[in-house]
Amino acid sequence: MNVLLIGSGGREHALAIALGASPLLTRLFAAPGNPGIGEVAQNVALDAANHSAVIAFCKAHEIDLVVIGPEAPLVAGLVDDLTAAGVPAFGPSKIAAQLEGSKGYTKDLCREFSIPTADYERFSDAEGAKAYARQRGAPIVVKADGLAAGKGVVVAESMDEAEAAIDMIFGGAFGQAGAEVVIEDFLEGEETSFFALCDGECAIPFASAQDHKRVGEGDVGPNTGGMGAYSPAPIMSDAMSARVMAEIVAPTMAGMKARGAPYRGVLFVGLMIGASGPKLIEFNARFGDPETQVMLPRLDCDLLPLLLASATGKLPQAPVALKPQSALTIVYAANGYPDSPQRGTEIHGLDNARAQADVTITHAGTKLQGDKLIANGGRVLNVTALGEDVADARRKAYAALEMIDWPGGFYRRDIGWRALAR
Ligand code: AMP
Ligand code: GLY
């Protein structure tokens, strides 16, 4: 099979490695890819926003499956256009991607299909939103409805903070994504992520992970795309996974089908596990980054037929086979991330680091300048290790990371602390 992978981050590098290991694979292309992905795939300069160019490429190179990493092409309807052109694509349609693209859409689905989540209301004016927030009381959570690069959520500790967030969003901080606001109750508990593969009718469990969203050690400071992660999430016992499948994923599949928008692809379920069980915080319509970097090394089966079945057929009705080991990844970010990451610094020592047993290094934001490897983004590298448990994976990952010579970058030294504390 020939596969085209869309994206250029660490998540896509992990996907490229897993797809590259498939005996079913003939050729793997990545658009646009990155220098790491280029070692296992052929990078092509193709703009994912230009759907007719993507379709023409697929026809010319006899692509059997397009695997889409990030959310933007999904929300823009790339899967719909590829499907209409007869090219199988892994990921949800434009309408189904509203599970990530619109918080209000998802909350209404939860209400209609009794999916456990925080109580909420939707607003298109500041006065109504403020009155509701005052009625519910702090702490309260204020969310821009649309995609806001992970910055559209404010967990407000006080009413002043809630009102400021409402004014900020309606003031246009996120453009159209902030035309509507969702106000919801604050949920207590432990946050975790769960992933299910879906074929429009059914879903099967994939894996669980926990990430560290804040930039600073001890989980403080600004939110980021994620500074590290591990899989499995210790809190996700088999019993808890079964509850999430039954109480959240299954009714979502049924609800989307009933709405005429059957969900295909991977469903990324952001959860709060509290005293009364799992509650949905949010859905994403794609694999997580860096969660994918820790889930895929644990895979004990071929990824390619699973993604193909999700896109075009029926998934096997058995959970995905996983190794019993744990994986942990550390994000090596450019100094200044997330506010103003410094680009252009040189990275040395990768070959030593990646020669370590059970270690994988994925590129998230690099470029080649001649034969020099240069930082070219916020999150630049991911150092991932597989171990007997989180502590073993963590020891191997930090040992490998310390072999990298990159004064232009920083990383958190406490990835996995919550799992270790258990
Ligand atoms: P989201 O983009 O919806 O995942 O929200 C970003 C982050 O805000 C989440 O990862 C949580 O840490 C936090 N958050 C969102 N909604 C809630 C909620 N209802 N209660 C508590 N924390 C929340
Ligand atoms: N790491 C969180 C995400 O991929 O959205």
Provide a descriptive summary of the structure in words.
By secondary structure, this protein is an alpha+beta fold. The protein folds into four domains: 2-95, Rossmann fold (3-Layer(aba) Sandwich), CATH 3.40.50; 125-179, Dna Ligase, domain 1 (2-Layer Sandwich), CATH 3.30.1490; 190-312, ATP-grasp fold, B domain (D-amino Acid Aminotransferase, Chain A, domain 1, 2-Layer Sandwich), CATH 3.30.470; 326-421, Glycinamide Ribonucleotide Synthetase, Chain A, domain 4. 30% of the residues lie in helices and 29% in strands. The chain has 14 helices and 23 strands. It has helices at residues 10-20, 51-60, 71-75, 78-84, 98-101, 103-112, 126-136, 159-170, 238-258, 291-295, 303-312, 350-354, 390-401, 417-421, and strands at 2-7, 27-32, 42-43, 65-68, 89-90, 120-123, 140-144, 153-156, 181-185, 190-199, 203-211, 214-216, 220-223, 228-231, 264-274, 277-284, 326-334, 346-347, 359-363, 366-369, 372-375, 379-387, 409-410. Strands 10, 11, 14, 15, 16, 17, 19, 22 and 23 form a nine-stranded antiparallel beta sheet that branches. The radius of gyration is 21 Å and the shape is globular. The N and C termini lie far apart (44 Å). The mean pLDDT is 97. Residues 118, 141, 153, 155, 184, 186-187, 191, 270, 281-282 line the site of adenosine monophosphate.
